[in-house]
Design goal:
CATH architecture of chain A: 3-Layer(aba) Sandwich
Number of strands of chain A: 10
Number of domains of chain B: 2
Strand content of chain B: under 5%
Oligomer: heterodimer
Strand content of chain A: 25-35%
Number of domains of chain A: 1
Chain lengths: ~260, ~260
């Protein structure tokens, strides 16, 4: 029934028979995935299972060995450098370690994509935009600080705040709660939901944190040994009779 | 079957193949610089910032080393020249040594250490912490922003620092000459430039431009390709300095040979 509803929605990401290897190590083996408009898909899996590789392929940072990736109707294989740059304006990517620019203040970090890609905006419009996203994450007081002066949670929140600043249609989150305490993780999970509500984005959240998956995901896709073994709502995926899924659930639960 | 596949992987051997692949990779990096350089717009804000970092931030060190080089070279040369009653040739000798060889070489070696390691470590750490990827996904060309701006800055600033270092070196030499012979500044500079030709100044500027380009290019290449975490960043900084110095000495030999060919 769920599948029928999804087919009627617009598919923003289509992945078909995707393969990716690093040397002898086959990371992704015939992966298929669809992400629909305004849907939050959580890709769950153990460390090294190829989750981050998958979203790096979607944004064009890595090239697949074979298979098709169609993002917003555009086949990545057929895009030249200019086309890929244009497509990237519609994709927001939040990195695992925030990837804030060390040599820039928080304000300059947030301004960076706007100054380069929204040349029609005046400095006061850019300033307003920066103040607004900082207010959204409750970190206005950090505007003139350097990333090195921020805590891990603050860096993460500013990293996420920077991502939707170009108003992308798709958000990709790489391990948004990794290394954070439960309270900060909860704040990040709420932030991910707020971003979707406010900017009407579709998103893929890469995580191995079941709490994050439960709170942010409309659909869970379980990636094990380079393949999706199951997809569905959280309660449909867990508990499962599949031993590997069960052991992943138990491991997280004990953790 | 698997053994056959493994054998097919390398054309000669793993090490030799990797060596040639690295050279090809460096060549592509160099070629990309020239293709990006002529594609507007350039990142002028970043270029000015990097010129400040490379030029202004190195002034103190260049002043000190330039001054000491001029002073010590004069002190060391005086006994030999005095023995033949040729102490009056000191300004000319020092000027030839400083302008033709010492100023560009000392300046570029100091900058290879200071600026080269800085660029290698900065880009290396940006690479391993995914900051370069972050630039790429925000539809900014990281090569143009990071590499082109830094290479332009080093290529412009090393010649400026070389001229400054030569001037400071001559001032150091003047201090010693003035203390012994009571020569005035005007007479000192008049004597110093007697044997200096446009070819000397031209060759020095060509050297400084080549060294500046080399420091920028090598350090950016090493930093841009850093991997394996903090250890990789350290290696990138270290190899930026070592390789830059190696190429500087290599270029020194070539440019001196070419300049001597035109001189004779």
């Amino acid at each position: 029934m769920e599948q029928v509803t999804n087919i009627q929605k617009e598919s923003v990401i289509q992945i078909r028979k995707l393969h990716k290897s690093f040397g002898e190590n086959k990371v992704l083996r015939s992966v298929d995935l669809d992400v629909f408009s305004r849907e939050n898909v959580v890709v769950l899996g153990r460390s090294g299972s190829g989750k981050s590789v998958l979203i790096k392929i979607i944004v064009g940072l890595l090239k697949p060995d074979s298979g098709e990736v169609i993002v917003l109707g555009q086949n990545l294989k057929l895009l030249d450098e200019k086309g890929l740059q244009a497509l990237r304006l519609s994709i927001g990517f939040s990195f695992q370690n925030s990837a804030l620019y060390d040599s820039m203040t928080v304000k300059e970090n947030l301004e960076f994509p706007l100054v380069r890609n929204r040349k029609h905006l005046s400095q006061s419009q850019i300033d307003n935009e920066v103040h607004q996203v900082l207010d959204d994450v409750g970190l206005s007081q950090t505007i003139h600080q350097m990333p090195a002066e921020l805590s891990g949670g603050q860096r993460k929140r500013i990293g996420i705040a920077r991502t939707p600043i170009l108003r992308p249609r798709i958000m990709l989150y790489d391990e948004p709660t990794a290394g954070l305490d439960p309270t900060t993780s909860l704040e990040i999970n709420n932030l991910i939901k707020e971003v979707r509500e406010k900017y009407h984005t579709s998103s893929i959240v890469i995580t191995h944190d079941l709490t994050c998956a439960r709170q942010t995901g409309d659909r869970i896709a379980m990636l094990l040994d380079g393949q999706f073994v199951t997809q569905g709502k959280f309660d449909e995926v867990f508990p499962s009779k599949n031993e590997k899924i069960q052991s992943f659930y138990n491991y997280n639960f004990i953790q | 079957m698997e053994n056959v596949d493994k054998k097919k992987k390398y054309v000669i051997s793993r090490r030799i193949d990797e060596f040639f692949l690295k050279i090809f990779d460096a060549w592509r990096f160099l070629r990309r610089f020239f293709s990006e350089l002529f594609k507007p717009p350039l990142e002028w804000g970043e270029i000015v910032k990097q010129c400040y970092q490379v030029g202004y931030r190195s002034l103190g060190l260049i002043s000190l080393t330039g001054f000491i080089t001029g002073l010590v070279f004069t002190k060391q040369s005086r006994p030999s020249l005095s023995e033949f009653g040729a102490a009056s040739w000191l300004p000319s000798l020092v000027a030839i040594a400083i302008i033709r060889a010492l100023a560009p070489l000392v300046t570029s070696l100091i900058c290879a250490g200071k600026v080269g390691s800085n660029i290698g470590a900065e880009l290396g750490s940006m690479n391993v912490t995914e900051q370069i990827d972050a630039m790429e996904v925000s539809a900014t060309n990281p090569y143009k922003f990071l590499v082109v701006s830094r290479v332009i800055a080093t290529t412009l600033m090393i010649p400026v620092l070389t001229c400054y270092s030569a001037f400071i070196g001559l001032m150091g030499s003047f201090l010693d000459v003035n203390a012994h012979e009571k020569t005035s500044l005007a007479t000192f500079f008049e004597n110093a430039f007697i044997k200096i030709t446009f070819l000397d100044i031209g060759a020095t500027l060509v050297k400084a431009i080549a060294y500046g380009f080399t420091i920028g290019m090598v350090s950016c290449y090493k930093g841009y390709h850093a991997s394996q975490g903090t250890e990789g960043v350290g290696r990138a900084a270290n190899s930026s300095v070592v390789l830059s110095m190696f190429f500087i000495f290599l270029e020194e030999i070539i440019i001196v040979q070419v300049a001597n060919y035109f001189r004779t």
